[in-house]
Design goal:
The chain is α/β, with parallel strands linked by helices and 478 residues long. The protein contains 14 helices and 19 strands. It has a six-stranded parallel beta sheet, with helices on both faces. Strands 15-16-17-19-18 form a five-stranded mixed barrel. It has a three-stranded parallel beta sheet with strand order 7-10-11, with helices on both faces. The longest helix is centred in the first third of the chain and has 25 residues. Bound molecules: S-adenosyl-L-homocysteine, iron/sulfur cluster (SF4) and FE3-S4 cluster. The site of iron/sulfur cluster has 10 residues, from helix 7.
């Protein structure tokens, strides 16, 4: 292994946190002895799966500190709000929730309210919390998640509010306890940060440069999850398929997938999010030949116009992107391909937008996540000319959805009459008389089942398909 850069936080730093965890636990246990009930912690999460995974660490540490993890903020002694900054709307939602917690703090002045995540990795938002939300006890950024126990202790000991500076060098903290969401699905972060600096995007500024975990640490975690009975494992990274490049490892993301695929057991591996520039033929070949790797590729296109793609700093053209899709479909004819599309990037003309609609018709994605461009302070696009009026952005967004909905329906219809393998997630949230699950391509499937089917792979014969979901019945093995 040559030129390997050590991205890993020294184990002694993590050990230090366990000392703080012990200290807080002692205090919390004393509280339980006196009051007969445990102190509770509530974690509110905004944003992407990376944040969900970070929140599982926050909850894991809170549990180790002796808190009971609560589903509601009322009555909690510790509230952590894990924020997102990708769009203005996400920030406003987080600020509004933090505003709502003021009355809880009034009722219980001993309660600790902490705000972390991408929004408060920006200086102007830290100042906003400092001056407009005086009941927030401390703020910590995305590279300081592991320092939560230390911050609680410091806050209690000093009585002063803390605005945790970001670590100078973002490092990967291994060995933090996690409390995973219920169910048979698990997130595993394999790399953090982003080096791409797409001109509209705040992520590289709030998540720092790319750094990858070692394949040994990832292998051990995935093997343990499979052993524990997790059935669907999603490898996470802002740029998951550039895994390893930052660290000078002599293995890349395709090698990592091949290695994980050797783990024995009944499970599927998904991964997100990939950047087209790193979607290599080697990676597609590994997927096509894999035993456990879902034939599902989430590959954000963002826009169909080469001029817009260039100004977005995406580093591919629509034709080169289509070259990747053609290879995926040649090797895996049934692969599910999903994407992210943005409308209203500064200077997007009607013609540019129509290029995006044409691109959708050619690419024929199974599903897209669609976004209206939101200006992010500090990014190059923020100061570009010709921002698009909201009304036009909304109109384009509607047209985008209409176009894609028709394609999604066309893609789902041929599944009627086919049997698909579905991981059952249990009773549907909106209607507990039916069960829901997802197939290999992450499409949602509804069916009748029994509670004992939850967390299992089932064969489901698809009887009906609409734009967003499939409906069927279980084929039971005799
Ligand atoms: N790393 C991933 C995902 C990043 S954020 C990637 O490169 O695709 C998820 C999506 O949010 C992006 O794909 C993009 O479509 C959207 N997004 C990012 N910044 C945005 C902004 N300023 N306004 C609107 N949507 C944005
Ligand atoms: Fe943002 Fe681009 Fe990085 Fe994705 S690749 S996180 S869109 S800068
Ligand atoms: Fe949001 Fe941060 Fe994820 S900005 S989308 S929570 S990386």
């Amino acid at each position: 292994m040559c030129n390997t850069k050590n991205n890993i936080l020294p184990a002694a730093e993590v050990e230090k946190q366990f000392e703080y965890i012990k200290r807080i636990k002692k205090d919390n246990d004393k509280y339980t002895e006196l009051n007969g009930n445990r102190r509770r912690a509530f974690v509110m999460t905004f944003g992407c799966q990376q944040n969900e995974a970070d929140s599982e660490k926050i909850a894991g540490m809170a549990e180790a500190m002796g808190y009971e993890i609560a589903n509601l903020p009322e009555g909690a002694s510790l509230i952590v709000v894990n924020t997102c900054a990708v769009r203005e709307h996400a920030e406003q939602k987080a600020l509004s929730i933090i505003g709502q917690y003021k009355h809880l703090k009034n009722k219980d002045p001993d309660m600790i309210i902490a705000v972390c995540g991408c929004m408060v990795t920006q200086e102007h938002r830290v100042n906003e919390i400092k001056f407009s939300y005086p009941y927030v006890d401390f703020v910590f950024g995305t590279s300081s998640i592991h320092r939560l126990p230390q911050l609680i202790c410091q806050r209690r000991a000093s009585g002063r509010r803390i605005y945790c500076p970001e670590e100078k060098e973002y490092l990967v903290a291994e060995g933090i306890p996690m409390k995973r969401a219920e169910g048979a699905r698990a997130w595993v972060s394999v790399m953090y940060g982003c080096n791409n600096f797409c001109s509209y995007c705040i992520v590289p500024y709030v998540r720092g440069r790319e750094r990858s975990r070692t394949r040994e640490a990832i292998y051990d975690e995935v093997a343990e999850l499979v052993k524990q009975g997790y059935r669907d494992i999603t490898l996470l990274g802002q740029n998951v398929n550039s895994y390893g490049k930052d660290s000078g490892y002599d293995y890349d993301f395709a090698d990592l997938l091949s290695m994980l695929d050797t783990i024995e057991g009944d499970y599927m591996i998904h991964f997100m999010t990939s950047h087209p520039k790193d979607a290599t033929r080697k990676l597609i070949d590994v997927m096509a030949n894999g035993r456990h790797i879902a034939k599902h590729f989430h590959l954000p296109l963002q826009a169909g116009s080469d001029d817009v793609l260039r100004r977005m700093n995406r580093r591919y053209t629509f034709e080169s992107y289509m070259g990747i899709l053609d290879y995926i479909r040649e090797k895996m004819p049934d692969a599910v391909i999903t994407s992210d599309i943005m409308v209203g990037f500064p200077g997007e003309s009607e013609e540019d937008f129509e290029d995006t609609l044409r691109a959708l018709r050619r690419a024929r994605f199974d599903m897209i996540y669609s976004f209206i461009y939101s200006p992010r302070r500090g990014t190059p696009a923020y100061s570009m000319d010709c921002h698009i009026p909201d009304k036009i952005k909304s109109e384009r967004f509607e047209r985008l959805l209409q176009c894609q909905n028709a394609i999604a329906l066309e893609k789902n219809k041929p599944l009627v009459g086919k049997t698909v393998r579905v991981l059952c997630d249990g009773r549907s949230k909106n209607n507990d008389k039916v069960f829901s699950g997802r197939n290999e391509g992450n499409k949602i499937v509804f069916f009748d089942a029994e509670d004992s089917d939850t967390g299992k792979f089932l064969d489901v014969l698809i009887e009906r398909a609409d734009t967003f979901a499939l409906y069927g019945k279980i084929i039971r093995q005799k």
